[in-house]
């Protein structure tokens, strides 16, 4: 076998979610109806999925798409439903910004803000006061604004910080000009206010990790290659509809500008039957609140799905893949700001990898010694949202478990460190601060364990009181509590009690008569650390609980509401669950909050090594016994008895390495 170069065996297929012809046809309709024109930017464009109940009843409608539009000339914005297959607009609603909020930030706003700020006399004076007069070095960083006063209500605002980028190749995040906040109305293109709170020295040490001369260390010696070889190719297949099949698993892949990867119809084989587990899974929101309450930055928090549409920032892995082995890539198809189709080549990476020991036992009585290796299917993508980079890695394993690992890396948001003992930031380089913050994600899991009607039980460990049932005081048990209504199902994790949530199907039983289920293991790290009266608590109430369960409604997709940008708060989960609908033995959706609370370390600068967060779902009485007894003893020759690699082994099988 020859040794093809990286990517030579990669296949590239467009994901089925939105097709380029559907985007182009929609653009023609939107233009014809006067909705798209000069100054109008397409903020979001995506598939508006059909009501699951209609689909299951066999009523398949023409595909509908949702377009969110903003006219940066007039400020008007629209929420539009277009049906390209029927050449028509179904609805077009103009937003009332004071009530509805704004459509997500569009790319034009990033460059526009710097143009506007660079021309403002007050900001120029604030910079001159600090000796900063070379405009070519001053980067203006627009931040989603929230709504902090009545005067801001209904406007489209960015709050801005300034950074010094000494040269075009310099890392600007190393040099924050802290203490000055600028408010820009991106529609009227006016600077509403420049607030010069405090004069803090601009940190001077560079952070140019991308330049060998700055790093000033020889490359570490002694690193020998690790080559992953799959001489017969991967064990999965993918069809033209994006249906991925792998060793009993089936799932349909999609990609959305707001949520990134979207999975539909996740199922796993049990005997001869393909049994559903999840109807739809995605990351429906993620939010990064900063914990420094000082006046120039207390408002700082970013909704990377609802305000910035993180799927639209998917990296093209043509530029460097982060997976090793035999890789299959899929392109993502999105709309650009003008409504044209935009293909992100190789946005999604699919591969399988070894996952250590699956099970193992050496029996002292019967002398048997058995061991099996686990492996997992990995579907991933990476996004860059401002200073941070996030990788989303969904793992499907032989034992029926589903795991999401989110990898956070990139550059921490920086400030000027005010002085020793400051309680809201770390000092990560001389005079350079990194405010404490959280990364809080909301997984939307439209469960379908063995069928549509599911229920959720909270399981936890409990000591049994000493007495007749427990005379020795050593008894403990597991207690199940049914979460019957939406308000009852707003829960925090409690790792001291081993608290988990099992999604069951009361009408499908396993071989011992119990309801089949899948159990959600939360990491149980901190939820939102903000006072209940605070602005961010009102806007991100979803992130104050680890678990919410709602009754399925097709238009309940985003836990902080549809229009998060400049929304006054209260939308999404808190609004929907006010009715306290029944969630016992009906069609339910789980919303799981997880994430990192980040107190930056010196080692997180100048670029942060990956930190991980996520959750695990495991079958819980879903199968009648260990579902992996059929896994063969050896899946490769590497651990076969007496095996020794030939000296030139690696030469023969190294392919797909990245
Ligand atoms: Ni962080």
In short:
The chain is mainly β and 658 residues long.
What does this structure look like?
This protein is mainly beta. Residues 1-15 and 642-658 have low confidence and may be disordered. The chain has three domains: 20-94, Roll (Nuclear Transport Factor 2, Chain: A); 108-210, Nuclear Transport Factor 2, Chain: A; 260-619, Copper amine oxidase, catalytic domain (Beta-galactosidase, Chain A, domain 5, Distorted Sandwich). The chain has nine helices and 31 strands. The strands form four sheets. The protein has a 20-stranded mixed beta sheet that branches. 9% of the residues lie in helices and 40% in strands. The structure holds nickel (II) ion. Nickel (II) ion is lined by residues 408, 412, 437, 439, 598.
CATH topology type of the largest domain: Beta-galactosidase, Chain A, domain 5
Bound chemical compounds: nickel (II) ion
DSSP summary, beta strand count? 31
Mean pLDDT: 92
Q: CATH first level of the largest domain: which class?
A: Mainly Beta
**Separate helix tally:** 9
The CATH superfamily of the largest domain is Copper amine oxidase, catalytic domain
* CATH architectural label of the largest domain: Distorted Sandwich
What percent of residues adopt helix (DSSP H or I)?
under 10%
How far is the N terminus from the C terminus? Answer: 19 Å
- Which sheet architecture does the biggest sheet show? 20 strands, mixed
Query: What is the count of structural domains?
Result: 3
Shape estimate: globular
What is the structural class? mainly beta
Strand content: 35-45%
């Amino acid at each position: 076998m020859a040794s093809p170069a990286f990517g030579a065996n990669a296949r590239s297929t467009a994901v089925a979610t939105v097709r380029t012809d559907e985007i182009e046809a929609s653009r023609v309709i939107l233009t014809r109806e006067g909705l798209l024109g000069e100054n109008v930017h397409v903020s979001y464009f995506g598939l508006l999925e059909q009501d699951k109940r209609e689909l299951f009843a066999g009523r398949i409608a023409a595909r509908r798409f949702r377009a969110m539009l903003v006219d940066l000339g007039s400020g008007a914005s629209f929420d539009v439903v277009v049906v390209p297959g029927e050449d028509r607009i179904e609805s077009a609603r103009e937003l009332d910004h004071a009530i509805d909020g704004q459509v997500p930030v569009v790319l034009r706003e990033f460059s526009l803000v710097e143009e506007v700020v660079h021309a403002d006399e007050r900001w120029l004076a604030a910079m001159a006061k600090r000796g900063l007069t070379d405009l070519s070095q001053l980067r203006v960083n627009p931040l989603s604004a929230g709504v902090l006063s009545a005067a801001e209500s209904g406007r489209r605002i960015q709050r801005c910080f300034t950074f010094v980028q000494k040269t075009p190749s310099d890392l600007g995040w190393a040099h924050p000009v802290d203490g000055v906040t600028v408010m820009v109305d991106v529609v009227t293109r006016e600077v509403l206010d420049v607030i010069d709170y405090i004069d803090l020295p601009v940190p001077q040490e560079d952070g140019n990790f991308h330049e060998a001369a700055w790093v000033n260390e020889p490359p570490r010696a002694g690193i020998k290659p690790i080559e992953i070889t799959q001489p017969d190719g991967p064990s999965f297949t993918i069809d033209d509809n994006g249906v991925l099949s792998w060793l009993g698993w089936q799932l349909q892949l999609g990609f959305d500008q707001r949520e990134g990867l979207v999975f539909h119809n996740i199922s796993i084989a049990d005997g001869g039957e393909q049994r559903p587990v999840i109807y739809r899974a995605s990351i429906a929101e993620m939010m990064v609140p900063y914990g420094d309450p000082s006046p120039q930055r207390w408002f700082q928090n970013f909704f990377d799905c609802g305000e910035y549409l993180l799927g639209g920032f998917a990296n093209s892995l043509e530029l460097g893949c982060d997976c090793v082995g035999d890789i299959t890539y899929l392109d993502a198809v999105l709309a650009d700001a003008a409504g044209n189709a935009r293909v992100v080549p190789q946005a999604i990476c699919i591969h399988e990898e070894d996952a250590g020991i699956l099970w193992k036992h050496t029996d002292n009585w019967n002398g048997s010694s058995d061991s099996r290796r686990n492996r997992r299917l990995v579907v991933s993508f990476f996004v860059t949202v401002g200073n941070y980079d996030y990788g989303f890695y969904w793992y499907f394993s032989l034992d029926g478990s589903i795991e999401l690992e989110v990898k956070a890396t990139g550059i921490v948001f920086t400030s000027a460190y005010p002085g020793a003992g400051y309680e809201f930031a770390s000092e990560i380089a001389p005079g350079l601060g990194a405010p404490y913050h959280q990364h809080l994600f909301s997984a939307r899991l439209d469960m379908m364990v063995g069928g549509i009607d599911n229920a959720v039980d909270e399981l936890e460990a409990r000591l049994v009181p000493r007495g007749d049932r427990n005379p020795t005081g050593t008894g403990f048990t597991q207690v199940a509590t049914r979460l019957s209504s939406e308000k009852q199902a707003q829960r925090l994790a409690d790792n001291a009690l081993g608290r988990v949530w099992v999604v069951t199907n009361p009408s499908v039983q396993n071989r011992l008569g119990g309801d089949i289920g899948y159990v959600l293991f939360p990491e149980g790290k901190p939820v939102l650390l903000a006072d209940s009266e605070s602005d961010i608590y009102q806007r991100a109430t979803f992130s104050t609980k680890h678990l919410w369960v709602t009754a399925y409604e097709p238009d309940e997709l985003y836990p902080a509401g549809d229009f998060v940008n400049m929304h006054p708060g209260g939308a999404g989960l808190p609004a929907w669950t006010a009715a306290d609908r029944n969630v016992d033995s009906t069609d339910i959706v789980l919303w799981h909050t997880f994430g990192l609370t980040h107190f930056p370390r010196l080692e997180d600068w100048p670029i942060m090594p990956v930190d991980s967060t996520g959750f695990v779902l495991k079958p819980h009485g879903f199968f009648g016994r260990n579902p992996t007894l059929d896994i063969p003893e050896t899946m490769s020759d590497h651990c076969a008895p007496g095996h020794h690699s030939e000296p030139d082994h690696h030469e023969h099988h190294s392919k797909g390495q990245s």
